[in-house]
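Worked example

This section walks through a single chain of length 385. The input is the sequence exactly as stored; nothing has been trimmed or padded.
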Amino acid sequence: MIQLLIEWLQGLGVDFPGSGLTGYISFRAALAAAISIILALFIGRKIIATLRRHQIGEDIRDLGLQGQMEKKGTPTMGGVIIILSVLVSALLVCDLRSIYTWLLILTLLWCGLLGFADDFIKVFRHNKEGVSERCKLFWQIALGLTVALAICVSPSIQTDSVVTTIPFVKAHEFDYSWLSPFKGQAGVYCTWAIYVIMIVLVVTACSNGANLTDGMDGLSAGTSVIIGTVIGIMAWVSGDAVNAPYLNIMYIPGAGEVAVFMASFCGALLGFLWFNSYPAQVFMGDTGSLTIGGLIGVSAILTRKELLLPILCGIFVIESLSVIVQRAVFRCTKRKYGKGRRFFLMAPLHHHYQKMGIPEPRIVSRFWIVGILLGVMTLAILKIR
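Given that input, the structure is written out below as tokens.
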């Protein structure tokens, strides 16, 4: 919006020093991050006070975890802080003529509303299950299909071939047509069908992965800042016509707007982390966790980096796998022995370490360290072929 306003004023013959800075992705990204973090810090206190006043707190089930019951009554649904900060910052700084901006805003609001509905049912209707898993999965798949449709029909995104980034191969490119068993026009349709399925899988997996990771103070927010920073760097480089070929990274016109949006995203998360770090003053709830996971997935898709997510989002992956393994082992042993057995002391994985007696802040900080290593590894492997 700021950029459009400056261009409108310049069209009227009004000019002022420094207006040219808005043409630089790096300046707008820094501005977006600054605005979102200031907004999060400012509105965070007010929202937390409102949540406390209306007694919108977390209802903790006693699972025998150290320090667990001390968190009872802590305000939840704090993801609203993240959503509002990102939305305002993005509307002010991002280019509103870009399809990338609007797809990310759509994802922000879509996942935010889904998470808000889930938290609303848990808090106000006292139903700990919230939105059913099937209903949640339905709306996540619907979002993935909507994003896929926009990519298929938008002239500013669509390409003749569906190519994405993959490490360890020449030019770091992978064409989805290689997976198609058909040739000709049927092959084209099959390729796009495979790509659409991949988009849906990425959106649902990232959204649920972030949700499962949100089980300790600062864990999901801190991990997501690292992931968002790496995606922002890759988006900034991919959108640069000079640096992308020089660094042998796929050039994606307009991808710089994803970098600006992710800067806003990371700034909002840092502002929220100020209140969410141990001991947390507020929890993000599904309002926040589903949103940040959805944004990570869609931003990776838009920058054609979705096949790098298993490495970059390794924390989300291992947390999700721990739940899957725990359920599978419990069901198999129950059928075989009549009583279910557990592979981990508790799932997701961070609770396994908590059951081992490791203090929560130490677990969170170690997960952050692993997240940083995975982020550095993701950037490094783009130079390996």
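What to look for: The mean pLDDT is 87.
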